[in-house]
Amino acid sequence: MENVVRKVWSITFGRFVFVKILGIGDDATVEVATMKFVLQHTNIPVPRVFVVLRYRGRHHIFMTRIAGKELSRRQWKAYSQDSRDHILAQLRNYISQLREIVPPPHSPPFICNVLGGPIMDHRLCVDRPYGPYCDEEQMNLQRRQGFTVERFAEIFNIPEEFVGLIKHAHDLRHPVVFTHNDIAMRNIMVSGDRVTGLIDWECAGWLPAHWEYVKANWTEFIAEEWIDDLRKFIPPYDLENEADELIGWSRSWEPRLDL
User: CDD domains of this UniProt entry (predicted)?
Assistant: First the structure.
């Protein structure tokens, strides 16, 4: 019976409606609010939410189905240079629109999700949404698990020649901009060389300007041909990215000393 229902759905409403099923205990509030916020402030193709229902302990987000398919590494390799350039130009426009949204005139926290709460970002913390942060200094302290740069390097055996690099990167201050925070191929929908949508907005929020580039490098680190093109649509921050790679990901940190 369940298979019959799935089949009927796929050839009827499923052609126009996509249902995102969240994990048990995960809340849809922030992601839904974020998609509405982006639709209000940009012309980026983002799914429109119809309704959120709770069934068997999980939230189900009913939204418009974005045409096309997820961008893949194989597809990116197969594109001509003209097609790549066309896609990159569209993405550059969308990222620029996000970064041009004026931050709300509120007092700290300044680094937060669209509703002012914690950000879902496993680069910051693998266990749960983390923050909000009153400023970039506090966010950097989280990256170092509460330690000074010198103490963090000592604990995690970071070679002395890299300590200055991390310290310099963490002393920099960047403007806070609206950030998708998960720019991966799987979240870019395409039809031919037309970008039909950006999806999965649960990690988005107000973050330092370098973070979009840092996260995008981490998310697709094995796709070298894609990594090389990131700087063509996301403003690059190479120093900050190198420092972040040395620090590693989440609170379960393992050193990367091969840079």
Answer: APH_ChoK_like (cd05120)
